[in-house]
Amino acid sequence: MRLILKGLLTSSLMSLSLLAQASVLMKPNPVPGAEYPPLLQGDYQPNITTPEAFLGFDVGQKTATPAQINALVKQWASESERVQLVEYARSYEDRSLHYLVISSKDNIANIDSIQSNIVELSEPGSLSDAKVSQLLANTPATAWMAYSIHGNESSGADSALALIYHLIASKDADTQRLLDDLVIIVDPMMNPDGRARFTKQLQQNRSSAPNFDVQSLLHTGVWPFGRTNHYHFDLNRDFYYAVNPESRGRIKAINQWHPLLMIDGHEMGALDNFLFGPPREPINEHIADSINRWSKVFANDQAAAFDQQGWPYYTGEWFENLYPGYSNYAEYRGAIHILYEQARTAEDGVRLHNGAIRSYKKSVHHQFYSALANLKTLQKNREAIFSDYVKNRKSHVDKKGKYADQSFVVLATDNHSRLQQFLDLMDLQGIRYYRNEQPLKVRNVTDQLGQQRKSRTIPRNSIIIPNRQYNAPLIAAILEFDANIKDEVLLEERQKTLRDGSSVMYDSTAWNLTMMYGLNAWQVGQHLAAGLDDYEQRKSEFKDRENAIAYLVDGADDASVSLAARLLEQDVNVRVLDKPGVYNQVNFSRGTVVVSIADNRHKPDWLGTLKRIASETGSHVEAINQGLGDGDLPDIGSEHLQLLQRPQIAMLTQNGISPYDYGHIWHLIDTQLGVRHSHLAQELIGRADLRRYNVLIVPGRWYGELSKGTMDSIDNWVKAGGTLIVTGSSVVQFAKAKDFISSKLLSDSFEDIEDYNLALTRQWLSEQDKMAKVDKLGQHMVADNIWYPWQNDKDLKPMDNKQLQRWNDWTKAFMPSGALLATRTDQKHWLTYGVDRVLPVLTDNAPLLMTKSVTSAVVRYGVHLPNSEAKERLIGWSTIPEGNDLSLRMSGLLWPEAAQRIANAAYLTQERKGNGQVILIANSPNFRGATKGTARILLNAMVYGPGLGASAKIEL
């Protein structure tokens, strides 16, 4: 009995010991730096809940979760007369995004009147000088304080809590005066889904002892990290593409308040210190001179405040301001923008190079202190800044102003759903647009290939956007075909490229919205206003017809692919028209979706399903009762109407895969197709039953490769009838894999370069409207003088293999970091349904593909333009035919060396493999959700591939 009791006692003590150890793990030891003084010091109102009382820890001591932040701001809004709380959006994971309007009690009571005054000042064209002076004297300046748009850059959101509490609870006289003079809008957490992922990872990777090692998981996080939102979009690049609900809600709110100052709190490398504006060159020329001037005033004041504390900092250096899609997009609407980049610090703290430990609270303090310094600068210079803002806005609509004589034209298109997406974005940004009911002759026209004409005629029903508007800088920044980069910046960029391969460019150098969207557009050197009408959106209709035999949705419209995918998901039989047709005097494009009664009469309520999905996708449906195609156009029962197979889509994901590429494709499937699909962990592919899928997508990679076993599994699956789609950097492994496909990388093709050039020439000849290089056709005697593509090789002196290798090594160093290039598309291939002959492609140092097959190169870089004086010549490895030039650059920085290397290489290849097919796309086809031209090709590949490119259905 004594032994039993002793055993029980020992067991109990062990259990208590284990519980104690578990408790230690759950409650880490206090971290060094915890003794850092409280951020909130002063006399505060006792009726306002303190952050510490609500959170259970001092503000900045730990990372507050999204749920805690949302609950706390709601609590404060219920307690304070200095604040209004507004929910401006909900994330994909249904989390609230709020902003708080903070000002004096009197200002909050009159906030609608104040906002009305701000709107008046933003449109000052009709205001008298006296009225402007009156409004300037009596209207508080507005500051927008925004934090943690990257979810794992956490200190900004925690500093926002300190800022909000200080502003609404402080009894300090200086704070009272600040609130009298300013309306301060705090957006405490711009990316709640990413922050939720990050804070969860903090919990999962915590140990019992503090960890200061910046390489540890506690500091780095794990794939896909907390930076991005649910679909892994970088929301800080989404401020004018506005793809995501977080961005759309925020943009709408900012545009309603017209802030004079916008703060954006970020984090950077853990061993750095603190960066703030102003930026260095390149600076976008559409940012007003006064904004650049005021940025230096704010920087001087902030630097003085940091000097007072003895804190290290720097300005500019890597921070440039060319791309307009960051949060600094507010500068194009008149705001002064200041970026904060605090060195990242996890809750445990970071050990610096000098051995000191920087605490998380100190990082939060830097952001909090910066905000107060900037707000004081705005207060001190309120009227002068407001006055410059009004002057700038007036100049934008001045008949003699910088933007007076420029308009943008989006040419009429049958892709109504994509055009409507573009116009929805114009509406969101407050940009006015019009329609020309009749053809309109205009002068000084430049097209997207850079061709200039003294006059051209705009087709009727085009979209016209005059640049003479209050938001003129924003319009110019996103719609001009090229951003102007100063010569001295280009010189520095060239020097860095040659010296060590580095760059002064932080992001893409091209972003033109019409090119990204794949919409044909012109720049016109005159103000267009007369004879224009407001645009009325085309309403989608279901146009039934008596004795209908089929229902058609035109293939030019992206909605047709969405409709086809969802119908196939519902087991409705769908066909696609592979060449243009005319039925009942209605023209239909290649790629038109056809749902016939003959195919579906045995399906229950298929017509009801069609009507419902047509409504959901915004598809315009035309019924026909005439199956005979006009002239030699296809009849409704011809082989040109091919039956589709239901796509069963899987996509590889997890470690090594780029979260961006993966997320952007995932978003496209969910939002555009809306069909079921699977995400497969790449390391488990060897154990997966791939027979469940007939489409497999391999997104681009950040690092690593697929294992040989995985490659073998995919190889066998493709041969059995699968459609493999590979994008971005993942293309390299498949192009290099032995015997996987015939397409190669440019650098691996030099031994057979003549064969690749011959295929290029054959493709060009096959596309000509007239028979080229063929004389005396029909003669009875055998011709003794035949032209062959290789006969001029001796005169053109092509490079040999060794020379090509040296040429390749030299030119690849100049590859672009984001330029929009012109490509030519095979208009007989099913992958180019709904895609124009000229397709803008955003590219960087992407793989360049080579193929000996004429039909495999679906999209090639470069567009032939006629030039009667041009002789046949070699550029790099490829021949430019006589009488032609090759146009390549559409927008952005492209060095001549890179242009020569890229010219005529394939951007997209498709080839058969057994019963299946392999489609290689050399970049991210749905980049930032905005490259809608190349995204259409991906949609075609996913939805039409199993029926059009593969010859056998995989057994399921």
UniProtKB/TrEMBL annotation:
GO terms for molecular function: metallocarboxypeptidase activity; zinc ion binding. It comes from the Bacteria. The active site is at E317 (proton donor/acceptor). Keywords: Hydrolase, Metalloprotease, Protease, Signal, Zinc. SUPFAM superfamilies: Class I glutamine amidotransferase-like (SSF52317), Zn-dependent exopeptidases (SSF53187). GO terms for cellular component: extracellular space. InterPro entries: Class_I_gatase-like (IPR029062), Peptidase_M14 (IPR000834). The keyword Protease applies. Its cofactor is Zn(2+). This is Peptidase.
